[in-house]
Specification:
alpha+beta; four-stranded antiparallel sheet; 2 helices; 4 strands
Length: 69
């Protein structure tokens, strides 16, 4: 299991948090998703045998948000 915390542009409300959680629900290997509009970050716990950071960033971008590097 691995945990990643990413800064994400565009997490402004509860709806934004829900959209991010919903986007990851069909992704096999993602164990937990904790977006925070207060910090602008998302914490994701995942099985690195099934998921990688590229897939995580791609899933975030699909919601219309951007990972800040």
């Amino acid at each position: 299991m691995k945990e990643i915390i990413l800064k994400v542009k565009g997490i402004r409300c509860e709806g934004c948090e829900k959209a991010l959680k919903d986007a990851f629900s069909p992704v096999a290997g993602v164990i937990s998703v904790e977006p925070s509009r207060l910090t602008g970050e998302i914490k994701i716990t995942y099985d690195e045998a099934k998921v990688n950071s590229d897939l995580i960033e791609k899933t975030i971008r699909k919601t219309g948000r951007e990972v800040i590097k």
